[in-house]
Amino acid sequence: MRRTFKRTVVLVAAVSVVAVAPVARAEAPPDGCTPVPRAECGTLRVPLVRAHPEQGSVNVAYAVIRRRNTSRPASGTITINPGGPGDSPIALAGMYVQAFGSLLDRFDLLLVDPRGVNRSDPVDCGITGLPPTRDGITRMIGDCGGTLGPRARGYTSAEIADDIDAVRAKLGIERLDLLGESYGTYLMTVYAQRHPSRVRSMVLSSAYPLAFDTWGRTRVRAARRAMELMCERSGGACEGRQVLRDISRLAQRLRERPIPYKVEDENRLLDDTSLAVIVHDLAAGAPEGIGEIPAMVRAALRGDDAPLVETARRVSPMSGSTAKREEQAFNPNQAATVMCNDYPKLWNRRAPVDARLRQFDARRAALSERTFWPFGKKAWTSVSLDLGNACIRWPDGHGPVQPTGGPFPDVPVLVVSGDLDTNTPTEEGRLAARQFRRATVVEVPNVGHVPEKEPSGCVAGIESGFVRNLRVGDTSCLADIPPVPVRSDNRK
To answer: Angle, nearest 10°, between helix axes 293-301 and 272-284?
Structure first.
């Protein structure tokens, strides 16, 4: 996810922090780290907070999948992060071996579980699922920070990037080819910022810049564009501006008269924020689901709420990688901690919570409602946990601040964006590309978040060719990615 947690219950183990010397050292490899052939697994023990080694340490797990052809030196080492924050690269090893198999003849693959995730000492601050209200979410995240106390400062993108570099150094790897998906693009940019001489190339899939807009204005523009592109390619099944007008009418209705419904035994209300989440997540997940939106909205306007309610029951916030997980390794506790430490804030972090709440409300009140059409600004700024006020109750007002500027390495960079993605839209991908001198943006038609999930292998092939040759090769296969099927509903 670049953004949020699952609504399902996630069980995690408590983190173990013990005092050790600040020098990283190798530990015995865990058994059965991954079923992928040619995998070599291990751990490093590193300081929880490098600037304060007295706070203890944490284990960082890694897996190296060796190239098939070992008769010659490796052409390079690719390291991948699937995003979240909170997702496990090791858990997705099989998927990456399949997607980038052509590279593994000559390249090694390095997967490092971020600290606090899966095999790297899972952190637990009490988050097991999402409350049904935004206020409940802010309080839950604030309680998480209170539970962790000073230990929370160990869960930052900077510390994770330094962990990756510690593994690189232990293994004697000179430089890395970085591949980030969603939040992984943020993490890999931080790595490049902190260790520029150790980067050979970068692929940023579903990218956003370090200084991104936490009001979500780029995303609402992307939502409008996604509806128009989808309908333009639908063969007459829908008309984009009409769909947006219908969404606006339905949002107004739900704001005034929310629909009560249940998820299992939990009572919920389907309001305009719920509608914004549904559209945001279905578009990000394109091609799956987005084609349902026109008919679903039209049905609700006619008084048939069943399709909308059913969608509300099944749509949940996504993690960075939309791939099916091979083990349940996503950790929402780590996700909340990284986001609240790192991401730009819409209030003075050092102010008391009451003052932060007033600052946030005043700044949002100054925004134009029209900017967020067809949704309301309160609804749209609440669609995701990396937007709006999710971290407003985070107790540490003097924690680490992630720099958003360079210098960044002068290396070849490929940015890949889906043209229907509302989560990390192409507009943000272009901003991410501007952080680097030699960046190329490739926009993928008819897909949403993490374009290499599209089944033809076209996008993964373009990315593989870029890593191999350090340039963008033939992209003609993009023209063969089919338009999204749209459920036609021409009734007035």
So the answer is: 160
Dihedral of alpha carbons 277, 320, 95, 445, sign: positive
Residue 332 corresponds to which amino acid? P
Tokens of 164: 């990756």
Which residues have C-beta within 8 Å of that of residue 126, sequence separation ≥ 6? Answer: 140, 143, 144, 147, 333
HSE (CB half, 13 Å, CA atoms) of 229? 23
CA atoms within 13 A on the CB side of 187: 38
Measured torsion, CA atoms of residues 374, 378, 382, 388, in degrees rounded to the nearest 10: 120
pLDDT of residue 328: 52
Burial class (CB in 10 A: 0-12, 13-18, 19+), 202: buried
Residues in the chain, overall count? 492
Signed CA dihedral, 69, 72, 73, 74: sign only? negative
How far apart, in whole angstroms, are the C-alpha atoms of residue 423 and residue 283? 8
3-class secondary-structure state, position 475 = coil
CB 127 within 8 A of CB 336: yes
Distance CA 87, CA 116 (A): 10
pLDDT at 489: 64
Phi, psi of 466 (to 5 degrees): -65, -45
φ and ψ at residue 64, rounded to 5 degrees: -110, 120
Which ranges constitute the DSSP H helices of 195-292? 217-232, 240-256, 272-284
pLDDT for 449 equals: 96
Using the CB atoms, write b or e for 15-52: b if 16+ within 10 Å: beeeebeeebeeeeeeeebbebeebebbbbbbbbbbee
- C-alpha to C-alpha distance for 433 and 435, rounded to whole angstroms: 5
Across-strand partners of 442? Answer: 416
pLDDT at 98: 94
CA distance between the termini of the chain: 37
The pLDDT score that the predictor gives to residue 453 is 93
Cα separation, 121 vs 126, in Å, equals 15
The H helix count followed by the E strand count for the chain is 14, 11
pTM above 0.85, yes or no: yes
Instruction: Going from the first residue of the chain to its last (492 residues), give the mean pLDDT of each consecutive group of 10, the final group possibly shorter.
Output: 36 23 34 81 97 96 95 96 96 95 96 97 92 92 97 98 98 98 98 98 98 98 98 97 98 96 88 95 94 97 96 61 48 96 97 98 98 97 94 95 95 98 98 98 98 96 98 98 86 46
From CA 216, how far away is CA 219, in angstroms rounded?
A: 5
Alpha-carbon distances of 170 from 11, 27, 42, 249, rounded to whole Å: 31, 11, 11, 58
